[in-house]
Each structure stands twice: as structure tokens, then as C-alpha cells.
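COMPLEX REQUEST
Ligand: aspartic acid
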Amino acid sequence: MSSAQPSDQKWRLVIHGGAGIIERDRITAGEETAIRAALNRALDAGSEILESGGAALDAVEAAVRVLEDDPHFNAGRGSVFTYEGRIEMDASIMDGRDRNAGAVSGVTGTKNPIGLARAVMEQSPHVFLSREGADQFSREHGLEQAPASWFETAERRRQLDELRARPEAEHFDVHLKYGTVGAVALDRAGHVAAATSTGGLTGKRWGRIGDSPIIGAGCYADDRGCAVSGTGAGEYFIRVGVAHAISDAVRIGHDGAQAAADAAMADVAALGGSGGVIVVTPAGEGVFSFNTSGMYRGEAGPAGRSVALYGDERS
Ligand code: ASP
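STATUS: Structure written out below.
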């Protein structure tokens, strides 16, 4: 038998909208409905591409754009505020075919930072641009810009005010509902890709950068291993090198995807950190692993889809 044609191959999409203290008594019924609807729209956007034979890279970007545009998540519109009351966003994207990657940090005016990360990957000789330079690159390459008022929401302002009233907690998101977004996918051609986008942590200072835009920490994709996107306390994800650790464990073959993801999250927990990851392998396996009470998440494939928020929900 000859090998299956691309159109016969399986595809897979897994997304997250952040991990943290996500419990039923902390989320209103209206918020829950809106969050589930947004996760479903993100799955629609990515699945449509994958179902029709499109690239995993296009699918992860499309899914993340939907979540960036939705104010319930800490990415794009709805990003958290810095200590000084600004919005500075980070994003990264990686293609498992050739390990090409793009990332941006501290960007302020690009409507969809994930599109800027992709432009850095495809239209510059670099992998990682930051702050004013990244903003300038965005304008020069014609990416859609948005005013500060597009990104800012009253709820994020309230969270900053609450944090600023408690200076001893200055580095930490008051609700530990991190809300970063991400997507990982396998396309019918057998390639994987990953994308991650965030506003970072409420009250961040001094140009702080988390794991989300760091290739190997909050994002990684390698057809020889797997695609990974993370969310959580970025300092720990950087120290563990979470996304690369998972992909390499799968590539070397010591661990299956679930065991590799669980081991990396155990490592984060052992250092004192919390959060979660999503993983897709070239074999079509989709995995979640988190050590928080919940993670906004969803997955889709030819056999159907599911969306979940709380730790005790099946996903
Ligand atoms: N990982 C992100 C950061 O540390 C936060 C998050 O996941 O929400 O910037």
C-alpha cells in the first residue's frame, strides 16, 4: 500500500486561554458562556483551515487571533496593564517543518501581536524583536494598528488598581487567572506548529518579559518532537525551558507526550511555579497538562471537539 494521501491524514488542534485559579464560584454564568463561545470560535477558525488541508502554521495563527480579539483573555484586546498603566504585549510563533520562529516583546500598537510575530519570522532575518523597534517594524510592514483604547478594558484597570493598593504583591496577578492564549496544531501534511500570545502579568515593571515570547520556554514546535504552548508563571517556565524540554523528550523518545508534559509541569511545580501546557504530536495526539485548578482549553479533530474550563471537566 502506498502511503496515505495528505487529504486522508488526520489533523488536530488544541488551544488554551490561560491557566490559573479558575473555579466555578469565581466566574459568573455570563462570563463562562462568553469564554466557552470564544474558545469555540477559535476552534472554528483553526479547524476550518486544517479540515480543508491548510497549514498548521495558518491554523494556530487564526485561532490565536480570535482569542486576542476577545477581551476575556489576557492577549491583544483585554491584555493586563503594566504597573505604570500601559499595555505591553508579547507573542511568539513556530513552524515545526523547519523550526523557523518569530517573536515580539513589549509591543503596544499592533492589533494582533501574533501576526507581528509571524511577520518577524517571515519578513525579517531575525527571530525576536522588542519594544519600540518591534512597533516600528510592525508599522513599516503594514500590520493593522489599534489605539490604546482598543486593548484596554475596565476589568483589567480594576485589577491593576487592586494590585497597586497591595504593594507587597506587586509582581503578581491578583487573581492568578493568567489568561495568556495559545494554540498547537497538526495539519494533514504531517507538520506541527505552535503560537502563544499574552499581555504578561498585571503590574509588571522594568520591561519584564515572561516565557510567552521566548522560543523554547512558552512556545516550541518541531516535527521531530511536538508542538507546545504554555501559560502560567513565566519566570518558572523560562527556568525549566518547558516547551523545548517537552518537545525534546518526545523527539528522543524517552517519553510519550502526556508523560513529557506532566514531567515538565512537575519540574515547574518543584521550583514553586504553576501553570499549564498544551501539546500536539505529529502522530495526532493532543495533550493538556496543568497544575492549577483550571485552564481555559479546547481541542478539535476529525472526530469532534471539546471545550473545558475547570480542572474536573473532561477534556
Ligand atoms: N506566562 C505568561 C507570562 O509569564 C502569563 C500567562 O501565562 O498568563 O507572562
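REMARKS: The domain at 8-310 is CATH 3.60.20.30 (Glutamine Phosphoribosylpyrophosphate, subunit 1, domain 1). Residues 1-7 have pLDDT under 50 and may be disordered.
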